Fold this sequence. Notes:
By secondary structure, the protein is mostly helical.
Amino acid sequence: MERSPLLDTFKRGEVTHELRLLAAQGAVAPRAEEQLELLVMLTGDADPEIAATAERTLESIPASDVSAILAGGVSPDTRARFAAKGIFPSGAPPAGDAPLVDASPEVEAAPADEKELSTLQRIAGMNVAKRIALAMKGTREERSVLIRDPNRIVTAAVLSSPKMNDTEVASIAKMANVSEDVLRIIATNRAWLKNYSVMLALAKNPKTPVALSMNILGRLNEKDLKMLSTDRNVPDVLRTSARRKVAIEK
């Protein structure tokens, strides 16, 4: 399974008790593979209530559904856990991006004529659980607001949204008003870095951590290296390195 920003946030222990409990109940509903990994992780939570809740949620999922997910890209540890219960990979992984369990809060669709300010106001009135649900299920315009949320799990949910594509990721990578953490997540995702537009957007964004921008330089074409070599908005070290690479390639 491709590295998941949302799952990484849970692994790093950056999620509150309330949100871990919601996830254990199935109220944080990413793709099926990701949700299965999340629920398995939460069965080992230090809080007995969360661990027991995650276990009950897993037990509520039909074994045939779990078997189909196991046939996909889940971790060896997750496969081993279910093998111990007599559940093995079987059949084809489900098509689409639906979760296994969806107990996430309902989020009202935005009015068709809503202005950006109204979108900001509507989202500002939501609690974290609803913002996570909106990050997963909302529109691109709503995600463009949520990606600037100060809560890391909300921005991780945006980047884990089943609706996210390379074009949208490239647009986010260009944004000067997102956190360094968002840019770091994008820059360390191998699948996204296969897209040249994403790489170039990260290299040009002055907020991208320099070490990550430097790693991207060697993959840029001569035209874009020349552009970076004179770009006063990027860090000096990046501009100088681009200039050296242009000189070497001549």
